């Protein structure tokens, strides 16, 4: 029996969930691989950490804009269209990097990354919003589980993408790696056009553009907490850590890409099982108190690693083990937040609330990426880690304002 035949025999909600998840998986693979390809390739060319960070400036900035406008577009046009537009734009972004290497200027790569950033957040906003519509409103436990599976599997695939990027760069070179990914994603896009439900997520009452900003206090506080949470991760993980591993530990592309891939894969697996850590066995779903309680222990991890670097004590062992602990705690925090936004979001025009929340997520990544390049280049990894701890503490304090 063919895949299409098996898919058509499933209940509609399950079928749409699998298509949405499959799209998200395919996109995430190319997104993670592209990130690692660009970081390692331009580090190989001799670019400074801040210069590499600038390559992603438009990627993160347009993620902020896209989530605001994309939520509104999803409510007006339907989530199937915004998801497929995102897939198509990623193919174009990849194709832009197929120019001769002499034309891969900083400005050109920034423009390609800008398009990729728009594509990524259209795809993510569409996927996360779709889950709200596929689960009955009184099934909060199932909603949390489905969100955790989508989020966790996405991050596991992003880790595979990191490894894929490092491996493709080493095996084929930059341009051939980009071409392989562009062709594969174009095939996924064609399948999505044929299979995704046509009216999913379209609001009954067409929202005005002025409604892109959330009027919910809970969503505003959760969005602010999300911004600091993801800023705390990216301030040391995006630029500082890969360059530190390559320059201080003398790891090659395979080692850096492979290690970060394993980190994100483990992080994604923990996200998938986050409901079991936060009360599923007792029949509970998390609230604002849980968001505060799980953020607090995370604060200590970057501080311990920073102390190890400052005193030059067992740096390799503390950094690598600290990364493992950070992955577990951060994964639970991230999955918990992802459930809360989908739970808080309204049913009609769900993408408006989800888009606003992921705008804050993108803002956190933008702040973290720029700070990662600047702080690492100017002060080193220790300062990046201290800033990370401060951001996590702010996220925890904001969670105190969430509904209990």
Query: Which outline best applies?
Result: globular
Instruction: Provide the β-strand percentage band.
Output: under 5%
Helix/strand class: mainly alpha
> For the residues shown, what is the average pLDDT?
82
> Uncertain runs with pLDDT below 50, 5 residues or more?
none
Please tally the β strands and state the result: 0
Output the radius of gyration: 20 Å
Approximately how much helix is present in the residues?
A: over 70%
The oligomeric state of the chains shown is: single chain
N-to-C span = 49 Å
- Structure annotation, total helices: 16
Biggest sheet statistics: none
Task: Give the SSE order as H and E letters.
Answer: HHHHHHHHHHHHHHHH
Report on the structure:
The mean pLDDT is 82. 80% of the residues lie in helices and 0% in strands. The protein starts with a helix and ends in a 5-residue tail after the last helix. It contains 16 helices and no strands. The protein is mostly helical and 404 residues long.
Question: In summary, what is this structure?
Answer:
This protein has 404 residues and is an all-alpha fold. It is built from 16 helices and no strands. Helix content is 80%, strand content 0%.
């Amino acid at each position: 029996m063919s895949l299409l035949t098996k898919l058509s025999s499933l209940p509609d909600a399950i079928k749409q969930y699998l298509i949405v998840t499959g799209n998200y998986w395919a996109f995430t693979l190319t997104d993670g691989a592209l990130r690692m390809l660009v970081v390692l390739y331009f580090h190989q060319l001799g670019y400074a950490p801040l210069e590499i960070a600038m390559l992603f400036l438009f990627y993160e900035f347009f993620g902020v804009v896209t989530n605001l406008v994309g939520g509104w577009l999803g409510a007006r046009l339907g989530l199937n269209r915004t998801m497929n537009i995102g897939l198509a734009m990623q193919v174009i972004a990849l194709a832009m990097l197929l120019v001769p290497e002499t034309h891969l200027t900083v400005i050109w790569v920034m423009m390609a990354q800008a398009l990729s950033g728009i594509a990524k957040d259209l795809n993510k906003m569409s996927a996360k919003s779709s889950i709200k519509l596929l689960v009955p409103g009184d099934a909060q436990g199932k909603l949390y589980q489905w969100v955790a599976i989508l989020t966790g599997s996405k991050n596991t695939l992003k880790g595979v993408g990191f490894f894929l990027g490092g491996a493709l760069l080493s095996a084929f070179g930059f341009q051939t790696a980009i071409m392989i990914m562009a062709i594969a994603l174009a095939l996924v896009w064609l399948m999505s056009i044929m299979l995704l439900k046509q009216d999913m997520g379209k609001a009954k009452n067409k929202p005005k553009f002025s409604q892109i900003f959330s009027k919910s206090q809970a969503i505003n506080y959760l969005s602010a907490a999300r911004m600091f949470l993801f800023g705390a991760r990216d301030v040391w993980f995006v630029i500082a850590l890969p360059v530190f591993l390559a320059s201080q530990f003398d790891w090659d592309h395979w080692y850096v890409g492979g290690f970060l891939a394993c980190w994100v894969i483990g992080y994604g697996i923990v996200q998938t099982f986050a409901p079991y850590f936060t009360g599923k066995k007792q029949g509970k779903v998390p609230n604002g108190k849980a968001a505060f309680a799980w953020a607090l222990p995370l604060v200590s991890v970057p501080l311990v690693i920073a102390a190890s670097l400052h005193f030059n004590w067992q740096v390799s062992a503390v950094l690598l083990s600290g990364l493992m602990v950070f992955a577990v705690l951060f994964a639970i925090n991230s999955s918990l937040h992802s459930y809360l936004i989908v739970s808080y979001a309204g049913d009609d025009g769900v993408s408006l609330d989800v888009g606003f929340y992921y705008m804050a997520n993108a803002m956190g990544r933008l702040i973290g990426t720029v700070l990662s390049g600047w702080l690492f280049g100017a002060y080193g990894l220790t300062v990046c880690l201290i800033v990370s701890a401060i951001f996590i503490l702010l996220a925890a304090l904001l969670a105190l304002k969430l509904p209990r």
